[in-house]
Amino acid sequence: xxxxxxxxxxxxxxxxxxxxxxxxxxxxxxxxxxxxxxxxxxxxxxxxxxxxxxxxxxxxxxxxxxxxxxxxxxxxxxxxxxxxxxxxxxxxxxxxxxxxxxxxxxxxxxxxxxxxxxxxxxxxxxxxxxxxxxxxxxxxxxxx
Length: 144
Hints:
CATH class of the largest domain: Alpha Beta
Number of strands: 5
Structural class: alpha/beta
Shape: elongated
Distance between the termini: 32 Å
Number of helices: 4
Helix content: 25-40%
Radius of gyration: 18 Å
CATH architecture of the largest domain: 2-Layer Sandwich
Order of helices and strands: HHEHEEHEE
Number of domains: 2
Strand order of the largest sheet: 2-1-5-3-4
Largest sheet: 5 strands, mixed
């Protein structure tokens, strides 16, 4: 492959990356009305969202939903191996600090969930959401 072809290939890859970032970060035209539908929670609930399945961008999609639902998602990433399950359909919600505030809102936003009490002093979040294969429910516009 000559130098010109490599430059064209690199430019195309950068263009696709920039387009993907623009699509993921563009504002939601219905964002203000969507937030108005959710009453405020009694306290701030910090959540981490982990992709435990095989669906690309699953944690990012669920993060957008939960933020619109009034939850403070402070981290989204891939789940560690012990939480990965390619057969999991519904999200798994881990209660980390013993307070279930926000679990009902997650259920309202995402639909059926599985809840487990898994206290752990290391995570600095109230709830951990491990996303399975079902993330199609009301996907935010512009996110594949």
